[in-house]
Design goal:
By secondary structure, the protein is α/β, with parallel strands linked by helices. It contains seven helices and ten strands. It has helices at residues 3-22, 30-35, 64-71, 102-112, 129-138, 150-162, 198-202, and strands at 45-49, 56-60, 77-81, 95-99, 120-123, 143-147, 168-171, 184-189, 204-215, 222-228. Helix 6 (150-162) links the parallel strand 6 and strand 7. The N and C termini lie far apart (46 Å).
């Protein structure tokens, strides 16, 4: 193991302890969280969002300490601006793909209440980290993830392959779900929504659950995580 690997392991352990202490990480997810770190799914350049200033600062993997600090921090990371049209290191105009705060990811996975042999549909693959966590927990063939952006889907598929995690990744409109893999026991939506797609409900097994960050048309923020049974 290299010194960089040891530092990554220490940073991952510190983040896991923090999330456990705050209640964001459920005990039954700890093994998977340690085995599938967010750092495996990040591109060379990310933009770390400063919760205090509201600014996004570029961090490149070449700066190992700064990159490790961002990768293992409980902050959101922008991974794409302006639907991929953006170039350079300065922030773009609109963030169009990101790696969510680890505390948000783990809290939603806890709310999802998955169990052995369940099938899960994820809407919005992003970096692929959330799909990777689910695939590690549930095993091969149990997770389908849908991503509308083709370039984002390609990068996520490559990251899942590098991590040695099997999951079906579909390039398509998440509003349509993925009928070919239905029915699902759980549907998890990683993007804020203003309404629940009828396709998600139709593709969910009776007694299943749809989990999504939910808001209203009267504001740009999500009010919380909604569950539909």
């Amino acid at each position: 193991m290299t010194l960089a690997d040891e530092r990554d392991d220490r940073a991952g352990e510190e983040l896991a302890r923090y999330l456990l202490d705050t209640g964001a990480l459920a005990a039954d997810w700890v093994g998977t969280f340690r085995a599938v770190p967010r750092s495996l799914f990040l591109p060379e350049l990310v933009w770390a969002y400063d919760m205090g200033t509201g600014r996004s600062e570029p961090v490149h993997r070449a700066d190992a300490d700064a990159w490790r600090g961002a990768a293992f921090a409980d902050v959101p990371l922008v991974t794409q601006w302006d639907d991929g049209r953006h170039t350079g290191t300065a922030p773009g105009t609109v963030p169009t793909s990101s790696a969510s705060m680890p505390s948000v990811v783990t809290a939603m996975l806890g709310e999802l209440d998955v169990r052995e042999d369940m099938r899960v549909l994820e809407i919005g693959t992003g970096t692929g980290w959330n799909a990777g966590l689910l695939a590690h927990r549930l095993g091969p063939g149990q997770v389908v993830s849908v991503e509308i952006d083709g370039a984002v889907a390609v990068r996520a598929r490559a990251a899942l392959t590098r991590a040695g995690l099997a999951g079906e990744l579909v390039h398509g409109d998440g509003q349509d779900g993925w009928a070919a893999g239905a029915p699902y026991d759980r549907v998890i939506v990683t993007a804020g929504v203003r309404e629940v797609s009828p396709h998600w409900l139709a593709q969910t097994r009776p007694g299943g659950l749809v989990l999504a960050p939910f808001g209203t048309h009267y504001g740009g923020r999500d009010g919380g995580v909604g569950r539909a049974l």
